[in-house]
Amino acid sequence: MSRLTVGRAGALLRARLLHRPVRAPSSTRLSPLPGRRALSTISVQSLRDDDVCILSFARTPIGSFGGKLSHLSAVRLGALAIQAAVARAARLERESITDCFMGHVLQAGCGQAPARQAALLAALPDSVRCTTVNKVCASGMKAVAMAVDALRLGHADVVVAGGMESMSNAPFYLIEEWPTGGGGGRKPRQRRRLGNRTLIDGLLHDGLLSPASVASIGAAQLEEQVHMGVFADRLAASMGILREEQDNFAVHSYSRAAKATAQELFAKEIVAVEMPADAEERSSNSSSSSSSSEERTLFAAREHGRNASGAGGDSGGLSSPEHVPLMKSDEELERLTLIDRLPLLPPVFAPATTAAAATKDAHGADHAATGGGTITAGNASKISDGAAALVLASGRAVKRNNLIPLARVLSHADAEQSPSHFATSPALALPLALRRANLTLSDMDYIEINEAFACVPIMVMKVLAAAHAAETGMVGATASGALPRRLQAAAGSSDGSHANTANTATTTSAAHAPPPGGVPEALSSQHINAWGGAVALGHPLGCSGARILVTLTNILRSRTAHYGAAAICNGGGGASAMVMERLDLDAR
């Protein structure tokens, strides 16, 4: 037996023990370029019991802040996405659903158990176990990851997972005393007969301000949170990411999203949402709609849920009278005139570190006297409303019920580092997820990296390109010496673990240049966020992690591609990533 045969046999054995897919040897590996990969078909019976399959997906359109979806709470948006995803899962009986995991960040004022509310509004069985997940921006992806683990461990058979957010409805808080140092304390229940009260913006405080480490801002300010945009702006500067580069990325995001919308590529994702009569007025002046419109929308959703056959349709099964206006596309794309003004927009974030000095809205409100940075309202993600959901099932359930899987989740991973470096954390989580799937970047056809800011995917691609360069001996192209030691180690280690930093690539004059020759096709611009991202579409915090999984699955199906990966950073220094594989069933 040759050495190659022995090595291949060993890989097969290890893969079987670790439940990982096996890659072909590099000499026979197929090209990752779309259209050049010969997709193989599988039979349902060839699935392992602990395989995790995606049966269907759906998302609402993404509404602008104070816009057309602002009359719907997060749980009601979540219910619409859940209901549509379940209706689109061919041959699925809703009684077989055992669990529901939903990401949700801005939960104050939404009522008890938001995931449970959304599941019940979507007419899921009362027996469905529900869990609400908060991992900030990564909440939606973490909810799907928890579903994957439950299915893989045999704790569930069919699960709905996703995320939801209504940033338009985030409340303000009354705080009697706000901490200004180590001795400060909050007394929200203290009775005060006279005097003014302080309002705290719940959206900002619970959604956009990041905890900070002593290393980031010093011990004296440890309790003061820092706007994530401040951290991202600093890191972009330290890595040599220019304002022009971020603006160009934003233009590409808008143009790709607009093209995908014009070609109706998002139609397979989006469930049309019934609009109240004053939707157009609401979009322009953020006025409130009547509760009757809200109740009518969800009543229609729940009634359909009771009557749906499960066959699914283009609208995800949500039906409305012809005279009722429907929102079928992402609202932010109606504001494409922003592209023309990108170079003129002032920076949003000052170089300050404290929450008090960084309380301006990251996406367009009051830019006066900010100065200094490169992040603007145009090259940052937009505050938005929306929800997304996927239906997942174990291989055992697929075989037993003769279900039709669209894709298979191969692995997922989380990573953490200093809060000030959260924007590059996907460059830690993604290699770890790839290693767990026994795959590499070269195997990926498409990658989704959430565009919290345009600089995020730029920096992540830069670090990943440097890691590839280090692995292949092309050291010195794109990594930055300003990165923390763990990320410098990632440039020499495919799994993101600690490594000898002596051989780490360092900054050069080409720091903001495209990946050098020899870098995997997956890191070329046409393979990253192929249909645009959060800069153009919007970033509903609890939804986005699930939204990019929905879009990635759609892309793999639409582009006849094989492997895909998604990654998203989150406040506090974390990130989540997931790797998936398209499935095509043998018709025999």
Automatic annotation (TrEMBL):
Record-annotated Thiolase N-terminal domain positions: 52-281
GO biological process, one term: fatty acid beta-oxidation
Listed GO MF terms: acetyl-CoA C-acetyltransferase activity; metal ion binding
Compositional bias per record (Low complexity), positions renumbered to this chain: 497-512
SUPFAM superfamilies: Thiolase-like
Known EC number: 2.3.1.9
Domain Thiolase C-terminal: from-to ranges: 405-582
Region (Disordered) residue spans: 277-324, 488-518
Enzyme class at the top of the EC tree: transferase
Record's GO cellular component terms: mitochondrion
Keyword entries, A-Z: Acyltransferase, Metal-binding, Mitochondrion, Potassium, Transferase, Transit peptide
Transmembrane segments: none
PROSITE patterns found in the cross-reference section: THIOLASE_1, THIOLASE_2, THIOLASE_3
Subcellular location(s) per record: Mitochondrion
Coiled-coil residues: none
Compositionally biased intervals (Basic and acidic residues): 293-306
Top-level taxon of origin: Eukaryota
Family of this protein: Belongs to the thiolase-like superfamily. Thiolase family.
Subunit structure: Homotetramer.
Name this protein carries in UniProt: acetyl-CoA C-acetyltransferase
Species, as recorded: Cyanidium caldarium
